[in-house]
Design brief:
It is a single chain. With about 210 residues, the chain is of the alpha+beta class. Helices cover about 45% and strands about 10% of the residues. It has a 5-stranded mixed beta sheet, with helices on both faces. Strand 2, helix 2 and strand 3 form a beta-alpha-beta unit. The protein is globular and about 50 Å long. The N terminus is likely disordered.
């Protein structure tokens, strides 16, 4: 879901010999069509290739992307570090951003992540405020008090600041978007489908590993 139109570059991407077959099926990824380059590379930790999914629970495209993404993440090689980063473009989206970081801090992403998406996009629940979220959590067997405390914690507030800093560094304008190694971005909207976006990500991961 775009906040404003993507501004795409139109240069070829060299050096992608040995691409995964899934990427080759529709041709080698092309800069400006399948992915874009981050204007100012974002520093990443040394060691592994970092992949970040910028998403919002409120976004129907993120909800549609999640099952395909989740299956892909489970097959990532050991040299890839994947993490999710919730984005808020407006103050009204911040409670759900806090919710993700709260359940992450409590080790409950596997238990609750997909349930949040389902509540919003299948059950059409209103989770616009902290109070909405607190009322909904017990309906899925979650501890509203513990999660509510985490949402108000200093640790989550710090995560929110870091989230904004990284989103700004990547110049995120829409979600879902995948950031690869602080250098490139792709998305289902840019690449044409969820499957193609992940094939492009595979190719960029391979390129990152080569250095």
């Amino acid at each position: 879901m775009n906040r404003r139109d993507w501004m795409l570059a139109s240069a070829g991407f060299a050096g992608l010999a040995g691409l995964p077959l899934a990427a080759l099926a529709q041709g080698a990824p092309q800069e400006g069509r399948d992915f874009k380059r981050v204007e100012t590379p974002v520093p990443v930790p040394e060691g592994k290739v970092e992949v970040v999914e910028f998403f919002g629970y409120w976004c129907p495209h993120c909800n549609a992307f999640e099952p395909t993404l989740d299956a892909w993440v489970k097959k990532l090689p050991a040299h890839v570090n994947f993490r999710r980063l919730p984005v808020a473009f407006t103050p009204g989206q911040e409670p759900l951003q806090k919710l993700y970081y709260a359940i992450e801090s409590l080790g409950q992403v596997d238990a609750l992540h997909r349930k949040v998406f389902a509540a919003l996009h299948v059950d059409k629940k209103r989770l616009n405020t902290d109070a909405d979220i607190a009322a909904w959590l017990p309906t899925v067997g979650a501890d509203a008090t513990k999660i509510g405390e985490a949402m108000k914690s200093f640790a989550v507030a710090t995560k929110l600041r870091q989230s904004k800093q990284l989103s700004d560094a990547y110049r995120i304008e829409g979600v879902p978007t995948l950031g690869i190694q602080g250098r490139w971005m792709t998305s289902p909207g840019m690449a044409g489908s969820a499957e193609r976006a992940l094939a492009v990500a595979d190719a960029l991961i391979a390129q990152s590993k080569k250095g």
